[in-house]
Design a protein that fits this description.
The complex is a heterodimer of chains A (about 290) and B (about 250). By secondary structure, chain A is an all-alpha fold. Chain A is built from 11 helices and 2 strands, in the order H-H-H-H-E-E-H-H-H-H-H-H-H. Chain A is globular, with a radius of gyration of 20 Å. The mean pLDDT of chain A is about 95. Chain B is of the alpha/beta class and about 250 residues long. Chain B folds into 2 domains: about 1-75 and about 170-245, 3-Layer(aba) Sandwich (Rossmann fold), CATH 3.40.50.300; about 90-155, no CATH class. Chain B has helices spanning about 40-50, 70-75, 95-100, 110-115, 115-120, 125-135, 135-140, 150-165, 180-195, 210-215, 235-240, 240-245, and strands at about 1-10, 15-25, 30-35, 55-60, 65, 80, 170-175, 200-205, 220-225, 225-230. In chain B, a hairpin with a 2-residue loop joins strand 1 (about 1-10) and strand 2 (about 15-25). The longest helix of chain B is centred in the last third of the chain and has 16 residues, at about 180-195. Chain B starts with a strand and ends in a 5-residue tail after the last helix. The chains are: A mainly alpha (about 290), B alpha/beta (about 250). The complex binds adenosine-5'-triphosphate and magnesium ion. Magnesium ion (MG) binds near residues 40, 41, 83 and 174 of chain B.
Chain lengths: ~290, ~250
């Protein structure tokens, strides 16, 4: 039994929180779209990949880092809106399962196009501020992890301000609560659906760009990250943003501790175990409530 | 003037409204009466664009509404107080009212994306809020409360206040008095009379035919999707057939 120092735990915790922040951004993308349009968008992970890939490509074209990142996020936001316009809106009266199949098709198509454009080779995105890792209470932290947490926090704050303190944000929420009554007040609910797709694609692109320096960028990176974000969203009940934040962070920390203290081989299994526990818990909770009533 | 001609609404094979025609003149209060399932709500929904009309036309002040979607109809000065209130339960009373007036801000980026606290300083918005609070002082007291925690009667006030925030010229109400105590029903009807004096045109769907016809100028009676009778409020109240069959008053 190896001995661990406090600094080891801190290190695992911070890595967990930083990777968890990525899951949070993706999970919030899932629930934003789900709340407004009722669609579970299985192409969410592809927006993550596109964000990172486009940033790499734009850097390669000679753009400085910040413009490259911003242009990439803007482009992916547009891709999100276009995806909704072309694939979801025409089918919005179709059953939920059909819509999910459509998003799955979109995911496969985007991944395929990614393979065509960028091939199978992994690309690297430089760290935002290269340099020696920081030492905090004995734990060694790469600077990029600090960036990940900082950027995620900023995105969360912007999202909070938008949804709680602007009329447009409230109109989007109104559509997610009661589309008909929002429409009757003059809210263009299909524009709000477009917006929700754009916001959520843009957020995922940010996630892709901040994680890229740690993981390398490949055409299929969206698969795994999208799945983790989805699981975090489900852990949070699919509707509540604070719960999705908790879900993402818990998942990241669980993975990090399993990988650090046990073996990294079962790291991915942890996500599915967590999903299993949450789903079983839900079901038991539901059936218990049903029995009581 | 609102003109509905040969309007039909279908849900799959259910023919909810069949070739209904009616008119509402400016400044009138017109009642639509009829038993449960007669198609009254479907008719209102089709007028505001919430349900597509499979046939027929709706025009309001030389404008065709039947090709518009609901949010576009809102911009033509038509507002609906929907059946069952349909307030946003997890949002505050104030937010419900703000969203009711969304159409005044829809094209203005500054209003949409600026902090709500700036928006609240908008003079037009303040006037609209004041007017609603004058009509429903209870809503002012409960501004910060979640709409879902209001009583049924208060939610009805909120639903009406929200529609008024759009400063409509034509107000459609779908059973605004359902579930209210008799004195609140009277208040509701008085409120509508007051609104008409301010220049609003009102189309009112009511179960309580007696209460509705007391304030209405004219009425239409619907049965299984069709308009089967119409006339002035007096005529409808006096007609023995109406009294027996549709109005539920002996
Ligand atoms: N969304 C829907 N899907 C299918 N059928 C519907 C739908 N809405 C209404 N109907 C049917 O259409 C018919 C007319 O309904 P509608 O709600 O317009 O009646 P109503 O006159 O408003 O009745 P009430 O007085 O009970 O509110 C009814 O037979 C109803 O079952
Ligand atoms: Mg009805």
């Amino acid at each position: 039994m190896p001995q661990y120092a406090l600094s080891d735990y801190i290190q695992l915790l911070v890595s967990g929180v930083s990777i968890g922040s990525i899951y949070v951004l993706i999970a919030l993308g899932f629930i934003t779209i789900y709340n407004v349009t009722g669609v579970i968008n299985l192409a969410q992970g592809e927006f993550v990949m596109l964000g990172a890939m486009l940033a790499v490509t734009l850097l390669g074209l000679g753009l400085p880092f910040i413009p490259a990142a911003l242009v990439s996020v803007a482009l992916v936001t547009c891709v999100g809106v276009i995806t909704h316009r072309l694939t979801i809106q025409p089918a919005r009266h179709a059953p939920e399962v059909s819509l999910i199949m459509i998003t799955l098709g979109t995911a496969i198509a985007v991944r395929g196009l990614g393979l065509l454009f960028w091939g199978t080779i992994p690309y690297a995105l430089p760290e935002f501020t290269p340099g020696a890792p920081l030492q905090i209470m004995g734990a060694v932290l790469s600077r990029q992890r600090i960036w990940i947490m900082g950027v995620a926090l900023v995105v969360l704050i912007i999202l909070y301000l938008f949804f709680e303190h602007t009329l447009l944000g409230k109109a989007v929420r109104a559509c997610s609560i009661n589309r008909g009554s929002a429409e009757v007040s003059g809210v263009d609910s299909s524009a709000m659906s477009h917006l929700s797709y754009g916001i959520s694609a843009g957020m995922s692109a940010v996630a892709g760009i901040v994680i890229a320096p740690l993981t390398l960028v490949t055409y299929d990176m969206g698969l795994g990250l999208g799945l983790k974000g989805f699981i975090a969203a489900i852990m949070g009940g699919m509707v509540s943003a604070p719960a999705a934040v908790a879900g993402g962070l818990v998942l990241g920390v669980l993975e990090s501790f399993t990988a650090g203290l046990l073996t990294s081989g079962i790291k991915d299994g942890v996500a599915f175990l967590a999903l299993f526990v949450v789903l079983v818990g839900r079901t038991m909770n539901l059936s218990m409530r049903r029995r009581r009533s | 003037m609102l003109t509905v001609e040969n309007l039909s609404v279908r849900y799959g094979h259910i023919h909810a409204v069949r070739e209904a025609s009616l008119t509402v003149e400016p400044g009138e209060i017109v009642a639509i009466l009829g038993a449960n399932g007669a198609g009254k709500s479907s008719l209102l929904k089709a007028i505001v664009g919430l349900e597509p009309a499979v046939d027929g036309t709706v025009s309001w002040r030389e404008q065709r509404l039947d090709q518009l979607s609901a949010h576009q109809v809102a911009h033509t000065g038509v507002a609906l107080v929907p059946e069952g209130r349909q307030v946003l339960p997890t949002m505050s009373v104030r937010d419900n009212l703000l969203l009711g007036g969304y159409k005044h801000h829809a094209g203005r980026l500054r209003d949409l994306l600026g902090p709500i606290s700036w928006l609240m300083r908008d003079v037009g918005l303040q006037d609209r809020l004041d007017r609603v609070f004058r009509l429903f002082p209870r809503l002012e007291e409960r501004q910060g409360q979640m709409a879902g925690s209001l009583s049924g009667g208060e939610q009805q006030m909120l639903a009406t206040g929200r529609a008024l925030m759009a400063s409509p010229e034509l107000l459609l109400l779908d059973e605004p008095s359902i579930g209210l105590a008799p004195n609140l029903v009277r208040d509701t009807m008085q409120l509508l009379v007051g609104l008409r004096q301010e220049g609003l045109t009102i189309l009112l769907v009511e179960q309580d035919a007696h209460a509705a016809l007391r304030i209405a100028d004219r009425g239409y009676v619907m049965e299984t999707g069709r308009v089967v009778a119409d006339g002035t409020a007096k005529e409808l109240l006096a007609s023995p057939r109406m009294r027996r069959a549709y109005l539920g008053i002996a």
